[in-house]
Write a structure and sequence with these properties.
about 180 residues, mainly alpha, two-stranded antiparallel sheet, 7 helices
Length: about 180
């Protein structure tokens, strides 16, 4: 008997998928952040385990550590997105990312979406540095940059974020429609 494969329901082409409200996406992002705490703890433990070897070959540097964390995050999100279109938090909040065909994005598109989702950070960090901000105020400048990035969804007729438009993906609301 063949093994059962998980099914992913896709809306019919005639049905226009609904975009989840920005507020639900923000809560989903916060929940993903909570879940990532454990993922990043494990990744940090692995980094600490290989840190003596990295030090011996001269590449134990904060930038290497940051690149490692970025790579772990990229793998986490891209793996879930290309597999089912949903991270664990997205499953809870009933949100899915899909391509124009209504399917989960493949690896290249998922990785592109992940990288493009960070486009808000360099301008926000540049403003923080230009203003000479440190610690809390600098984090505040980053938070403002993120909020501006999220608010760009209101400028889009389909309420999609800029990185989704650039990557050719979209977020859809999986909750049943209210009559």
């Amino acid at each position: 008997m063949p093994a059962a494969t998980p099914t992913v329901s896709h809306p019919s082409p005639a049905a226009t998928p609904r975009t989840p409200p920005v507020r639900r996406r923000l809560f989903c992002m916060l929940y993903d952040g909570v879940l990532l705490f454990g993922v990043l703890m494990a990744a940090s433990a692995l980094y600490v385990a290989v840190q003596p070897a990295l030090h011996r070959i001269g590449i134990d540097h904060p930038y290497v550590r940051q690149a490692w964390v970025f790579a772990v995050l990229a793998f986490y999100f891209s793996w879930f997105w290309q597999r089912s279109g949903q991270t664990l938090a997205m499953q809870t909040w009933r949100i899915r990312v899909e391509n124009a065909s209504g399917l989960p994005p493949r690896w290249p598109q998922a990785l592109l979406r992940f990288v493009l989702a960070w486009l808000w950070l360099p301008p926000a960090a540049a403003v923080g540095h230009a203003l000479g901000l440190t610690k809390g105020p600098f984090v505040g400048a980053l938070a403002v940059g993120l909020l501006i990035w999220l608010s760009l969804a209101w400028l889009d007729p389909r309420r999609q974020l800029l990185h989704d438009r650039l990557a050719g993906t979209r977020l859809i609301d999986l909750r049943p429609q209210q009559p």
